[in-house]
Write a structure and sequence with these properties.
This protein has 221 residues and is an alpha+beta fold. The protein has six helices and six strands. Helix 1 packs across helix 2.
């Protein structure tokens, strides 16, 4: 099973507002803060047409070799996307666990497992409230849909095309989703442009579109 950080997508379709379990006044305030923060973090991305896939081998006018060894992303093809909004930050454990509490769900096995890693201190540290949540696809989907129910807006996970379009600054021929499209992990001096280990969200510079942590910093496994 794959575990990934959650990216929120917001488009213009309206959904029917759902109901929570009975909440205390404090929980109602926490819920509203979670909703407000989620809305305030959205970055508008104007739609357009771009070449999706491995654009090496001359497609970008520079490289003569493919950029990826994978076989499922070779076919370069035009994709047209409507405008959408994407969260500038990954969803944190604090936000995700609050959603679980508000909806009467227990902490996930994944979270409890990481929290108990006494020997692997960096893994244990990655469960702090300001670190990106590492969850399975269904939990990520349910979190997004719950926000949609609460706001009447269409929150969802981004498609592969939407994520790639955003990571490449609206489909430009950019290989690395860093602040300037280059790779620098800090090992050879200079500013590190992305997380090489577990890090809180928003520590490293954003991309030109204002999106943080599009490279590194999340757990998969």
């Amino acid at each position: 099973m794959n575990y990934n950080a959650i990216y929120l997508l917001l488009s213009a379709i309206l959904l029917t507002t759902g109901c929570d379990q009975q909440l205390t006044p404090e929980q109602e305030n926490q819920k509203q803060q979670l909703i407000d923060d989620s809305l305030n973090n959205m970055v508008f991305i104007e739609g357009g047409t771009f070449l999706m896939g491995d654009f090496g081998s001359g497609h970008d006018g520079k490289s003569t070799l493919p950029y990826s060894l994978g076989k499922d992303n070779k076919f370069v093809h035009d994709v047209t996307l409507d405008s959408f909004s994407l969260s500038k930050y990954r969803v944190t454990w604090g936000q995700f666990n609050l959603w679980r509490a508000l909806t009467g769900l227990p902490l996930t096995d994944r979270y409890n497992d990481l929290k108990s890693r006494d020997i692997m201190k960096s893994w244990q540290a990655s469960t702090q409230d300001n670190y990106p949540a590492s969850v399975d696809w269904q939990d990520a989907k349910d979190y997004c849909l719950w926000l949609g129910q609460q706001t009447g807006l269409s929150f969802d996970l981004p498609t592969e095309a939407q994520w790639e379009y955003a990571a490449r600054n609206r489909g430009q021929f950019i290989v690395f989703a860093s602040k300037d499209g280059t790779y620098n992990d800090g090992s050879e001096g200079g500013e590190s442009l992305f997380a090489t280990d577990f890090s809180p969200v928003g520590v490293y510079p954003p991309t030109p579109l204002g999106l943080y942590d599009m490279m590194g910093g999340g757990l998969t496994g």
